[in-house]
Write a structure and sequence with these properties.
about 150 residues, mainly alpha, 6 helices, flat
Length: about 150
Amino acid sequence: MISLHKGEDMAKRVLSAPKVSKEARNSELRAILEQRRSLLLLDIQNRIRHNRSGSQKSELEKVDSENGEVPDIQEEIEFALIQMKAETLTKIDSALARLEEGRYGNCSDCGNPISEQRLRALPFAVRCRVCEDKIEINALHDLEKRPSRTKPS
C-alpha cells in the first residue's frame, strides 16, 4: 500500500538540522504532520476501497470460503489496521489543532516542554518522555494485577 517512509525521511532531515527558532521548528513539524496526514488518509481510503471491491480474495480464501473462517480473520485484521491508522490520523489532527492554538509541544500532564527530539520522532506526542513512561508503567502494573483468564484444571 502507501509507504510512510517519505515522512520519516523528512523527519530525519529535520532532526539532523541545526537548532532553529520555535516558529521555524513548528513550521517544519506542521509540514511533517500534514505530509503524514495526507499519506495516511490516502492509505485508509485505498484500503477501504480495496475491501469494498472484494478484489482482495486470494485463492486460499476462495477455497476456504465454505467455512468462512479465513476471510473473517483477514477482514478483521484489515479492519483493525484501518482502525489503527484512523486513530493515528485523529492524533495528527489533534496535533495540528494544538499547533494552531499555540499549545503544541507542551506535555498535557506536567506542562513541561516535550523534547524537540521526541516531537521530531513522534510529532503528535502529547506527553513528555517522563510522563509517558509513568503512564506505561502504570498500565503494566494494572495488567499484572488483573486475574488470569486461564481456566482451572
